[in-house]
Fold this sequence. Notes:
Layout: E1 2-6, E2 14-17, E3 28-36, H1 39-45, H2 49-55, E4 61-62, E5 66-74, E6 86-89, H3 99-102, H4 112-115, E7 131-134, E8 140-142, H5 148-151, H6 159-166, E9 177-181, H7 187-197, E10 201-206, H8 209-217, E11 222-225, H9 230-237, E12 243-248, H10 255-261, E13 263-271, E14 291-293, H11 300-311, E15 319-323, H12 327-335, E16 342-346
Parallel strand pairs: 9-10, 9-12, 10-11, 12-13, 13-14, 15-16
Antiparallel strand pairs: 1-2, 1-4, 3-5, 3-7, 3-16, 5-6, 6-8
Amino acid sequence: MKALRYTAVGQAPEVVEIPIPKPGPGQVLLKVTAAGVCHSDDYVMGLSEDEYTAAGYPLPMTLGHEGAGIVHELGEGVSTVAVGDAVAVYGPWGCGYCHNCSEGHENYCTNARDLGITPPGLGTDGSMAEYMIVDDPRHLVPLGDLDPIKNVSLTDAGLTPYHAIKRSLPKLGAGTFAVVIGTGGLGHVGIQILKALSGATVIALDVNDQKLELAQEVGADITLISDATAHDRIMEITAGLGADAVFDFVGAKPTIPLAVSVAGIDADVTVVGIGGGEVAFGFGTINYDVAVRIPYWGYRGELIEVLDLARAGKIDVEIQQYTLDDGPKAYEDLHASTIRGRAVIVP
């Protein structure tokens, strides 16, 4: 089968031929229908050799931590899914039995590192292939009649902002303000989630008008260029009080300080992006009772809720489609920031 693999540190991924894997006991083989492209992949492929080795990633590695497919073959003992089922893959795999996993919070598994359990495409061979192995059927969520190509990105680009936003919903009633920094792959879905679930006025920031067009299309109430004037503009809009919640989908050196600086009293600042930024934190450097969070992915139950939102027409992912053979080009476009919304690879 064809697979898009990262084969050497510092080199572009390449399409290669590898054998179709066989599911072992308790595993499921999927015939992949769609795989999402993510900045996390670009981050991993940007690591130095020492950083890559320290992180424990293997070489070669099939990319793709957003996946959807049709159940093709069952390993011994699997009975909760059937051949032919259309499913989405829940990516943050855990041990299944620690306290967090028992609550369905496998993204915060406390045993995964020690047991060598890694997500598909981020340590384990992922979805950018014609077939992929899923280690346990509990990591499969029914897709039903949802289009896998349009919705595969929701397994991360929907689940991650949903998880981040859900914690702050009690603070986002009528008359409140939510700031979204970065309106790309995750941010444009985050705006839709905020509009669907909260009463907040959504202020969206990005670096140019072209990027803000998508934010306007998906429902942002106010759009601003993310520049040196952004802080003052937000404070003016919020009558000097600041926002009730700020979601930074970039996480870069300029954006995290901005996020903290516009957070009002008792606000939430949630940093989702992995752009390498940080902020000084201490008395007098941040508003009173502000909570700063660094979430990771989301819960399996939340993925079911995200797909239900899509099924109800509340959220829709803007996608650019690529073939598996064009997979390397998708990452070139991602790195160049020319993708509008989310890239999806279709084997």
